[in-house]
Structures are given as structure tokens and as C-alpha cells.
Amino acid sequence: MGWTINYVDDITIDGNYEYVAFIRSQLKHAKFSIAGKAFTYEDLKEFKIPTVYDKSSLRIPDVPLLPKYKAVYKFQPLGIVIGNDRYDAFDKIEEVEVNYEPYEGPVYEEVPDNIIFKDGNGKGEVSSENEFNLRVDFNRNAPYSMETRIVAVKNQGDQLIIHLSTQIPTVVKMLVSEMLEIPQNRISIIVPNVGGGFGLKQDVNYEELSVIALAYKLNKNLKWVETRTENVMTSQARDQTHELRVGYRNSGKLDYVVDKITYDAGAYLLPFTGISPLFVTLGTMKSLYDFELYYDAIVKVSNKPPQGAYRGFGRPEAILVMERIMDEISKRTKISPIEVRKINVKRKLEGDVGDVNAVIDKLSKKYEELRRIYGKGIGISLYVQYAAPNSEIMVKHEKSLIPGYECVRARLDLDGWIIIETTLTNQGQRMDNSIRKIVSKELGYDKIKVELGKTNINGYGVWASRSMLTAGNAAILAVRKLKEIAKKIDDNLDWEKIARIMRQEPWKLKELSVEECYETPEFVGTVSGQIVVVNKDELGNVKPLYNYIIADVGITGDDEVVKGQLMGGALQAISGSFLENTEDEIEYSIATIAEAPKFEIELLHTPSNTPSGVRGVGENSISGGYAAFINAINDLGLECNKVPCRLSK
């Protein structure tokens, strides 16, 4: 195997560490034996993997940190070696011999048909004026964050100090506590600025848990820096197939969709993600258009890496299906794609989503303009990106241990700074700056600091475009209460003066510390549209030329940051639509500036019904981007209903 080193600055984590490397399976399904010095199943078998979701409806067996005798996917960790540095650890892998015996049969003997979950809503006889069949395949992408996974574990007395590149420090703390069977107050999770997450670091994977468990058991300080090869080949997401029967009228009205869904979970389920993307897909399919959805869904295990989270988390799959259906109806009825969408949009959308008519109007005008300019190769997507599921959804419906709220602490320090503390971590979204701006606006005061990655507050980190909706609004509520308390000290709210007063009686400073929590009472969404223009060169290669995005983002902390988020997500969708394929393994390709189209971003600012008026946008553009790109491919006359769309193969 060719190992690609991820050069990470070791100075950022103080202390002496030995380095971990994993012996990985070279076959996707095989019995194996290991000869040589390595830590294997026997060394970690006592550690049980906790989850945040209810497993009672799933037919999957408990899967250990390291397999006992059979590898179930290529690159699966089979054993662990420890070296003085990364290179020494890699050298020690070469000293270990692994013998394989290829295996045919189910992934797990306990699940002979490989199906671990079934769901459906049943259907009677359905009919319409017209019907067509369509199959949509959404294959795997790798989140490919700039920084791979990194974990460093230090034993310090009875304390376990874990430096981790994660989006969910408090959830990791909870899971590690349960796995090691030690109290949470003996565990510290320290999160630096994270070099990208994209959902990849929403979960904690078996490799990270293995390093933590081994460090704890051996009482050693251990560090693991994931290589890029490991990152791409073991951190993957998406993987759904939709076999559709679609009923529609000559008027362009969609009557029903009968959907046979196959969700490939990979070899096992991760502690946080589980099969939640499937439920997000089902919810998103019905979010915008008025029709009847009948479905039968199965979740299967396979000899692929476990499917985790990736930006969009089930939304891109749903929007691709629905937007392909809209274009197919348009093609069959000769009604324009925009008009077909207008015909089918619900009269009243669920939740708080913004100005639907304004978005459709702007999308329509831009579409007509681009038709005049380019003629063909134009694809549309219209969608609602819902964000921040509340506890009603998370706990009651999905039976998760993770609720939907986020808590924030606001306090005044003795130097006159308002400190905002949150469990959110920074993956480059500049959410700390956005929170600082909305708090500064609320207070009319500029000395604001936002401290991220705190684990002594009730909160659950970064996922589901929830950061500004939950933590941003909790920060507003907290500083409003802080103002009420501070006014009793100085009616003019001179924070510098209040700090000087507190310096005389610092023991009273705790009175100027407020923790507030927030979750949305209803789903808050961002109604949006995209148009992608592509052409084909003389070699038959498809090139994206132009990408228009219109989104009702509500009140923002920073418009430029939001535009950057939208452009970045759209480029990820374009990249995933025709370049990225995990079957390419170490030749995996992602889009660069050379493949990027010209972007035009238009924002609307209808305030949400929340204290700050914000909406979640982190997953917005990637959710609708695949559909717009694939529709543009089909508009060129090149039939393609799959991701990635490899026209030359």
C-alpha cells in the first residue's frame, strides 16, 4: 500500500507521544491471521462500542473495535503497532505478516441476507394519466476535509486528556466515558481549530476509539495522524439507490412516486450517524412538492467501509431524485422546467422557510436569461434545506440520546470583555465571528470574545446546519438576560464601568454569568434554487461554466461568509457529481480551481421566527448542487441519472 503522510504540526500538541499505525486489510472480505508484534482483537475485546441511537430495531450484531478473525471491508483495521514516530510505526507494519483466506458469504453470519433494517409506508393501487420508471444511483463520496483525523491521548494521573479533531467534543466525551466505564469528569476533550469537517468529524470512528482504548489500557500517551489514503478509503458517505415509478398528468402535475430505496450502510454503523441519513432523505423528498410518496426502504450491510456523515446528510440524495423527476415530467409534457416546479410546489410549506415566491421568481428570470445566452446544458434545482432538528425529532422520533438544543454561557470578565462560551468547534466557517457580530449588534458593544469547543456546557457541537440557529440564538438569549442583571449595577450598561466595580468585589462576578439554551420550536429552513450551466469539449469532457445560487438566508452574521459557504458547498457538489468515486481508491480526484465555474450568489433576508432571525445555511448549496449539475448534463442530451456521472466510461 502507498501511504500518504499528512504533515501536521506536532508542536500544536504538547507532550511526548508514541505513534500508532494500523495494519489494514488488503481484501474486502477474508478470514485472516496475524503473525508478528501487534495489538489485535484480544487486546481490546473488553471495550464495547456505545451509540447515541436506539439499536433495538436493527438486526446488526455488536462489532468490536478490531475484528476477531474476519475482515469485512478493504482497509479495515486488523491490528495496531506502536512506534517512536510515524515512520517507525509504518516500518513496524512491514514486520507484521497477515495471511488471508478469501471468504464468500454474508457480512455477518447473524444476518444471512445482509439486511439490517426495513421500513415502508405501504401502497394500494395507484394510477395516473401517465407513468414512467426511473432509477437514480447516488454512489459514495469522501468528505475529504483539508485536515484528516488526528487524535492524541495523554494519561495524566487519573485524568485522560484527549486532543481530537472533532465537531462534537461533548458527544465524544459521553461515548468515551461509556466505552471505558469511567466518569466523564475524568475525561478532557481538547479541540484546536479543526482543519475542515464536512460531517466527517461529526462521528467518532473505530480507529479513534481504538487509539483511546489502547492508550487507556496500556497507560501510554498515544497519537494517531490519519494518512490521506486512510481518510479517503475509510471515511465515506452517500450510497443510495432509488428505483422509481412516477405518476403524472399531462398538465405537469406530479401525482405520486413509488420508491424502492436501497441504502448501503457499509460494514457496520458508526456511533453517531447510524442510519439517520435515510430518514433525512425521506423527510426531504416531501419537503417542497405536493404529491403522494410510497416507499419501501431497506438498509443493507456490505463489504464497504461504514457510511458516515457528509455535508447534506441525506438531503442531496432526496433533492437529486425529486429534481430529476421534475425535469423528466418537463421533458415528457413539453412544459418548461420552471413551470413544472411552480405547478407542483405546495401551497403552504411546513415550517419557517422564507419567501418561496421570491426565490422562484428570481430563479425563473435567471433561467430565461441563461437560456437566451447558452441555449442548452442548463440544469435547475429548487429545494428547501431544513436545519437544526429539535428534540421532538431527535429524541421522540429518531430515539436519539442527543437532543436538539444548544446551550451557551455569556459572562463578563474583569477586563470588560463579554465572553461567549459554546460547545461548537471551528471548521473554517468563522461561526465564532458570526456569533460575535450578532452579539455585538445586540449589545451595542464591541469587546466580545467567543470561546469554542467547551465541554462544561450542555451542548452537542456542529452538525445539521444548526450552529447559528441553536448556539447563535442561545447567545442572544444569554446576553439579553446578562443585560437585565447588569442594569441593576449600572443602568447605562457601561460594561467597562461594571467590570471596574466587579474588580472591587470579584466574588460577585459569578452573578454576571448566564447560561441559556435554545432549540427551534419548528423546523427552520432556507428555500433556495440553483442553476448550473455546462458544456462539452471536443474530447467529450463535461465542463461546468456557471453556477447561480439564490437562497433566502434570513439575517446573517456576515453575508460574505455565507456566500463563501454557498460557493464552497456548490463546488463540492459539482466535484462529487462527475469526478469523485471511491472505487478509484488512491486515484480519487476532487475539483480544484481549474474545474470551478463562475459563481453568482444572490441572498434574500427574510428573518426567521427566532430571536436572531438567522437560518441554517451550512449544508444548503451542496444539497441542491448535485441535482442542478446532473440536470444540466441531461439538458445537453447526455442521459445520466447517477452520481458520479462518468460519461466517458
What's this model, at a glance?
With 649 residues, the protein is α/β, with parallel strands linked by helices.
Question: Care to describe what's here?
Answer:
InterPro entries: Ald_Oxase/Xan_DH_a/b_sf (IPR036856), Ald_Oxase/xanthine_DH-like (IPR016208), AldOxase/xan_DH_MoCoBD1 (IPR008274), AldOxase/xan_DH_MoCoBD2 (IPR046867), AldOxase/xan_DH_Mopterin-bd_sf (IPR037165). It comes from Acidianus ambivalens. Residues 361-582 form the Aldehyde oxidase/xanthine dehydrogenase second molybdopterin binding domain. Residues 108-345 form the Aldehyde oxidase/xanthine dehydrogenase first molybdopterin binding domain. This is Molybdopterin-dependent oxidoreductase. The chain is an alpha/beta fold and 649 residues long. Among the domains are: 353-388 and 522-649, Aldehyde Oxidoreductase, domain 4, CATH 3.30.365.10; 405-518, Aldehyde Oxidoreductase, domain 4 (2-Layer Sandwich). Helices cover 29% and strands 25% of the residues. The chain has 15 helices and 23 strands. The strands form 5 sheets. Strands 4-1-11-8-9-10 form a 6-stranded mixed β-sheet, with helices on both faces. Strands 6-14-13-12-7-23 form a 6-stranded mixed β-sheet. A 4-stranded mixed β-sheet has the order 15-20-21-22, with helices on both faces. A hairpin with a 5-residue loop joins β16 (406-412) and β17. The longest helix has 21 residues, at 467-487. It starts with 17 loop residues before the first strand and ends in a 6-residue tail after the last strand. Mean pLDDT is 94; it is low at 1-12.
